[in-house]
Amino acid sequence: MRVLVLYAHPVETSFQAAVHRTVVETLTRTGHQVDDCDLYAEGFDPVLSRQERIDYHDLDANRRNVDAYVERVMRAEALVLVYPVWNFGFPAMLKGFFDRVFLPGVSFRMENGAVRGNLGHIRKLAAVATYGGPRWRAFVLGDPPRRSVKRVLRAQIGTLGRIPYLTHYDMNRSTEATRSAFLKRVSKEMERF
Questions:
Q1: pTM, full prediction
Q2: Which of 39, 77, 111, 156 would suit a FRET pair with 174, their CA atoms being 20 to 30 Å apart?
């Protein structure tokens, strides 16, 4: 299966980088064709320009600055997001990717004024995230990143299947043991993917 891994973290020595390596290595070892999209390493520009917003609904013009990324999304049969949760949301880099690449005609289409998902070719979706705080805090605040994955992206993809959302909470108090256990969990889940 062709898996697009979207990775968003600026520090190559971070625990998130170890999570990313585990995801890519496990998917590759189990026979998937992995398109590893490290947004920071690739120098992706997350800023939606004035002209891009003007052209947003123009299907002939809206891809012009991000066409290579659109093509990668359109070739994917599966999508795995790897990111830290910052300020109870996606990192700006990943959010900017969605703003600039998940365009009309790409991730959704308009039919008689209604939005319809357009990523039906993506059959599987997973997210692997780290949170600085504990699970209870994310729960109390509604866990916006989890909802974005499990509801918004699910709707664009149209899958009714299981969507793994793997999380390591409380990174501020994590230990070598909790991090090691999480990497094993990630590897096991990616083996099943």
A1: 0.95
A2: 39
